[in-house]
Amino acid sequence: MTQPSKNGENAVDMLAVARIAQGVDIAGFAGPDAVKLVAPAKVNLFLDIGAKRADGYHEAVSIMHALMLHDVLRMKLAPGRGEGLSVDLSCVAREGLAMLDVPVESNIVAKAVRLLAEKLGRTADETVVACLEKHIPAEAGLGGGSSDAAAALLGAAHLWGVPADDPRIEEAARSLGADVAFFLHGGCACFTGVGDAFDHALAPMNGNVVLVKPEGGVSTAAAYRAFDEHPTAISEADREAALEAQRAADVPLRNNLVPVSEHLLPALVDIRLWASERADVQRVLMSGSGSAVFMQCATFADAGRVAAEARMRGWWARATMFGSARAAVVPNR
C-alpha cells in the first residue's frame, strides 16, 4: 500500500527520479560484491476468499503458480551515513510500464531489507544499494511487489552472510504480506490461513500464458471492502477439488473476487468476454483482485498472437509461460 511521504523522503525520491532519467548505472552492480536476483510474477489458479475474521483479515485458500515473467533486483553494500541502516533504491520501468510513484521508504523492497535487519538484530552503519527493474505491472494481481520483497529478503541475507533457509527470512516474508512467502517457495503451491500459510506444493505446469491488463488498477483494499458487502461463494465441490489437487493442471480455475473487481473496473469484463470468444484461448481467469487477466493457450505462437491483438486494443499484454521459478539469486552477469 502506498503511504504518504515523510519529511526528508522527497529528496531521496528526486535523486531516484534523476537516476532513472539519466539511466541507472547497472554496471555498478557487476562486481563480486553485488548480488543479482530474479523476482517472478504469479497468477492465482484458485482463490477462495472467506469471511472476515475478528482481526480484520479474511480466511483464504490460494493456489498460486509462478510465471517466467520476472522483475530483476540488483543489490550491494556501501558505506553507511552515520545513521545505521540506509536503503538507496532506484527503479527502472520496462515493458512500457509507468514509473513507480512510491516514496523510497514506503517501497516494499526497502521495508523488506529493514525488517530482516530488525529480525536479525543487525545494527551496522551501512547502506544497502538496490536497483529494481520492473517488468511486472503494479495493481495487477500478479504479485510483483510481493515477489520483489521476497527477492530483497534473499538478497540482503546473501549480502549479510545469512543462509537462505534461515527461518527468520520466512518470518519476515509472512509479516510483509500474504503472497510474499509464496515467492520463497515458487513453482505452484497452496496457501491457507489468510493466504500466507504454506499448505502443500503441487506439480507445476509448463503451458503458455497471456497476461492482459487494462488501463487502471483495482485496489486490493477496495476489492475486499466490496466483497464484504457482496460476498460470492465458491462451491464446496470446487473447493475440495482444489485442495485435493496434486498437480497444477488439475486445479479448477476459480476466483470469487472476480464479480466485485469487474464491478470496480468494468474493462475487466471486456477482456474476459473478448478472451472467451477466441478459439486460441483455452481458459481465462482474473488473477488475485485484478486487474490482470491470464489466458492459457495451446502454443506459444497462439499466446504471442493473442498478446499482439490485445495490445492493438490498447491493453498492456505479455506472452509468457508457467514455470517452477521462485525468488532467487542468479549469476551476476
UniProtKB/TrEMBL annotation:
<dbReference type="InterPro" id="IPR020568">
    <property type="entry name" value="Ribosomal_Su5_D2-typ_SF"/>
</dbReference>
<dbReference type="GO" id="GO:0016114">
    <property type="term" value="P:terpenoid biosynthetic process"/>
</dbReference>
<dbReference type="GO" id="GO:0005524">
    <property type="term" value="F:ATP binding"/>
</dbReference>
<dbReference type="GO" id="GO:0019288">
    <property type="term" value="P:isopentenyl diphosphate biosynthetic process, methylerythritol 4-phosphate pathway"/>
</dbReference>
<feature type="active site">
    <location>
        <position position="179"/>
    </location>
</feature>
<keyword id="KW-0547">Nucleotide-binding</keyword>
<dbReference type="Pfam" id="PF00288">
    <property type="entry name" value="GHMP_kinases_N"/>
</dbReference>
<dbReference type="InterPro" id="IPR006204">
    <property type="entry name" value="GHMP_kinase_N_dom"/>
</dbReference>
<dbReference type="InterPro" id="IPR036554">
    <property type="entry name" value="GHMP_kinase_C_sf"/>
</dbReference>
<feature type="binding site">
    <location>
        <begin position="137"/>
        <end position="147"/>
    </location>
    <ligand>
        <name>ATP</name>
    </ligand>
</feature>
<feature type="active site">
    <location>
        <position position="42"/>
    </location>
</feature>
<protein>
    <recommendedName>
        <fullName>4-diphosphocytidyl-2-C-methyl-D-erythritol kinase</fullName>
        <ecNumber>2.7.1.148</ecNumber>
    </recommendedName>
</protein>
<keyword id="KW-0418">Kinase</keyword>
<keyword id="KW-0067">ATP-binding</keyword>
<comment type="similarity">
    <text>Belongs to the GHMP kinase family. IspE subfamily.</text>
</comment>
<comment type="pathway">
    <text>Isoprenoid biosynthesis; isopentenyl diphosphate biosynthesis via DXP pathway; isopentenyl diphosphate from 1-deoxy-D-xylulose 5-phosphate: step 3/6.</text>
</comment>
<feature type="domain" description="GHMP kinase N-terminal">
    <location>
        <begin position="107"/>
        <end position="187"/>
    </location>
</feature>
<dbReference type="InterPro" id="IPR014721">
    <property type="entry name" value="Ribsml_uS5_D2-typ_fold_subgr"/>
</dbReference>
<comment type="function">
    <text>Catalyzes the phosphorylation of the position 2 hydroxy group of 4-diphosphocytidyl-2C-methyl-D-erythritol.</text>
</comment>
<dbReference type="GO" id="GO:0050515">
    <property type="term" value="F:4-(cytidine 5'-diphospho)-2-C-methyl-D-erythritol kinase activity"/>
</dbReference>
<keyword id="KW-0414">Isoprene biosynthesis</keyword>
<dbReference type="InterPro" id="IPR004424">
    <property type="entry name" value="IspE"/>
</dbReference>
<keyword id="KW-0808">Transferase</keyword>
